[in-house]
Amino acid sequence: MNFKNLEINDDIINVLKKNGITNPTPVQEESIPLIQSGKDVIAQAQTGTGKTLAFLLPIFENIDTSKNCVQALIVSPTRELAIQITEEANKLKEGKNIGVLAAYGGKDIGSQLKKLKKDIHLIIATPGRLIDHLMRKTIDLSKLNTIVLDEADEMLFMGFKNDIESIMTFAPKKRQMLCFSATMDSAVKKLAYRYMNDPSVVSIKNKEITLENIVQEVVESTDRHKQEALCSVLNEDNPFMSIIFCRTKVRADKLEEDLYKKGFNCAKLHSDITQSKRERIMKSFRNAEIQYLIATDVAARGLDVSGVSHIYNYDIPESVESYVHRIGRCGRAGEKGYTCLFIDPKNQKMLDEIESTIKSKIKKRILEK
């Protein structure tokens, strides 16, 4: 299967080739024909499986540049994800007269208002800022053809259910709706079916193969000595680029401060950090100027950074799914990855659950004294 078979036009195929993308991923293969045929689609696929292009490619195929109106809207739970989708969209529109607007909080609304005076065909937005524009009547969705809810489960988890309901009141009744989500729980289904017309369901299973390229180890410690254990591991491994996961913003703040004092090249990422600073941090991390990114799950949601070789779970995740999400950020594209999970005795139950789900015993790592 190639993009030509999926009826993607040559200009876009050439842009994809230029960016090293030659063949569609499973979620793209299954979703694109359904979306192009005008169907509503619920797609379940993990971050890093190519789902952004699964909805962007057919959207770009369907945009009519002779019409000066918003034809597609993508709603994303976090600013980081909105930025990433916008970057992908801007690559695809190369040489085309397609107007793309990113509308998210933390960015000057004045520049967004100025941009809205030009022809805008596609809007990528976070819920709060989008509602702000809709209330000001600076965005008109009356001629919208397609609306995408990206990371729908995360949107519900972050409390955006009412915002989504408000946004839907501004969209036409007859329009295509696409819902992409890493998990497909009852809350996501309920939300999707409420606004969808006989949706097709695409479910890309977590292949166990994704863990085949990842060496997983566990370090037993107490909470008091965990930081010391982490530093020993970091000094031994000295990874190229790494993400260290913390359970809360407070834990991330403390760990970053302590590691920085110890001379580690690190930066933290969580929702209390200003938008401009988050953008700077992500740019530096992508350029490999930062070795260790200390993040919470919510801040790291949807982030797909090539070059991440090591994932350290400083705090054990709250679910097995979250563990698989976290560690899936390394060992991408056939590369080898390494993950290390730090646990204290009270985490044993969650470790048992993880091992049972991945059908594998995680090897203990013994630190040099």
Describe the structure using short key phrases:
369 residues, Rossmann fold, seven-stranded parallel beta sheet, globular, hydrolase activity, ATP-binding
Helix coverage percent of residues? 40-55%
Q: Let me know the largest β-sheet.
A: 7 strands, parallel
**Name of the CATH first level of the largest domain:** Alpha Beta
CATH superfamily of the largest domain: P-loop containing nucleotide triphosphate hydrolases
In terms of DSSP E residues, the strand content is 15-25%
The pLDDT mean sits at: 87
CATH architecture of the largest domain: 3-Layer(aba) Sandwich
CA-atom Rg in angstroms: 21 Å
Protein name: RNA helicase
Organism: Romboutsia sedimentorum
Family: Belongs to the DEAD box helicase family.
Enzyme class: hydrolase
What would you note in describing this structure?
By secondary structure, the protein is an alpha/beta fold. The chain folds into 2 domains: 194 residues, 3-Layer(aba) Sandwich (Rossmann fold), CATH 3.40.50; 157 residues, P-loop containing nucleotide triphosphate hydrolases (Rossmann fold, 3-Layer(aba) Sandwich), CATH 3.40.50.300. α14 links the parallel β12 and β13. It is globular and about 70 Å long. It is an enzyme of class 3 (hydrolase).
Condensed summary:
With 369 residues, the chain is α/β, with parallel strands linked by helices. It is 41% helix and 17% strand. The strands form two sheets. A seven-stranded parallel beta sheet has the order 3-4-2-5-6-1-7, sandwiched between helices.
Note the topology.
Blueprint (H helix, E strand, L loop, with lengths): L9 H9 L7 H11 L4 E4 L6 H12 L9 E4 L3 H14 L7 E4 L5 H8 L5 E4 L1 H10 L9 E4 L2 H6 L3 H10 L5 E6 L4 H10 L4 E4 L10 E7 L5 H12 L4 E4 L3 H13 L4 E4 L5 H12 L5 E4 L1 H4 L9 E4 L6 H8 L9 E7 L4 H11 L4 E2 L5
Parallel strand pairs: 1-6, 1-7, 2-4, 2-5, 3-4, 5-6, 8-13, 8-14, 9-11, 9-12, 10-11, 12-13
